[in-house]
Amino acid sequence: MTHEGLYVKPYTSVLTDLHVHTDYSDGSRSPDEVIELAHSIGIRYLALTDHDTTFWFSESGMAFQSKAKSLGISLIRGVEISTRDYKTGKKAHILGYWPWCEPFVPAHLDPLCRIIQERRTQASYCQIAVLQSLGYSITADEVRANSRTDQIFKHNILKTMQNRSFIPEAMGDFYRLHFKKGGDCFFPIQYLDAQEVVAAIRADKGIAVLAHPGEQNNLELIPSLMEAGLSGIEYLHPSHSEMLSSLAAAEAEKYGLLKTGGSDYHGAYYPSRILGSRSLPAEDVTALKQVGLLGPM
Fold first, then answer.
1. Rounded distance, CA 257 to CA 249, Å?
2. Phi-psi domain of 79 (left: phi exceeds 0; alpha: psi -120 through 50; beta: other)
3. What is the pTM of this model?
């Protein structure tokens, strides 16, 4: 069933979404809007996992906890880190979760996030320069005004162009022509080492999960990531077919890893990824409660 275009799983009493982005990275909606939307469809466990930022562990990030709690939502702090396994060359996105409820500085992860933030921002400056050479009168300061954190995403650039009426939509034909691989605004970013990121999450007492392995065809990385401290696999994800979800679940069970899932919601930027559409079944919710990732709600 759907409610205002949002998928609601009809056969579970507890809705979860453990992979959600806001405009603190590359999502289109603010945290307030996402929390209110989650409340409107009955989500009880929500993880905000913005890319490569430790914002959600800060005092500012923690300010959203009280709003979520007042709406009956258990808000789990998270992050999604862009990494690569340099032995195989394969990309791997790593989700980190911290379910406890006080601000702190993730001493091991924070410097790694700063590295990728700087690399992403430098790539964005290159993209802005290309666009300027094409005759688009946008500036880095103008783009930064559309960024919430200490990094610039291509989405911030495209949002700026849309706001200036240079393009009709942020993630439309212009994005596909210029920003995808092969385009003049495509500047690859050197990602962090996957095992180093997993180890940093664990050193900061977080729970490390391999995100959407089917999307990046990287299930073979599980043993080496486990050596670094991997705790789980995201088996429910919009990019996973039923077969890929089953395969990822089987790998989790084979290695004794947690099973997680989420919509990878980005708001208007990826409208096919619907909040609450990959809610976990009861047995997975129970397992995550037992390890403390989910609270008692």
1. 9
2. beta
3. 0.93
- Please name every residue paired with 117 in a beta bridge, in sequence order, or none if there are none: none
CA distance 187 to 165: 24
Q: What is the pLDDT of residues 200-259, one digit of tens each?
A: 999 999 999 999 999 999 999 999 999 999 999 999 999 999 999 999 999 999 999 999
CA-to-CA dists, residue 193 to 70, 81, 225, 297, angstroms: 39, 10, 11, 36
Superfamily of domain 2-103+204-290: Metal-dependent hydrolases (3.20.20.140)
Q: At 240, is the secondary structure helix, strand, or coil?
A: coil
- Cβ count within 10 A of residue 222: 20
Q: With beta carbons less than 8 A apart as the criterion, state whether 103 and 81 touch.
A: no
The pLDDT, as a whole number, for residue 104 is: 85
Give the number of residues written for the chain: 297
* End-to-end CA separation in angstroms for the chain: 24
Query: Helix, strand or coil for residue 24?
Result: coil
Domain spans of the chain?
2-103+204-290
Q: How many CB atoms are located within 10 Å of the residue 249 CB?
A: 18
Q: Tell me the residue type at 187.
A: F
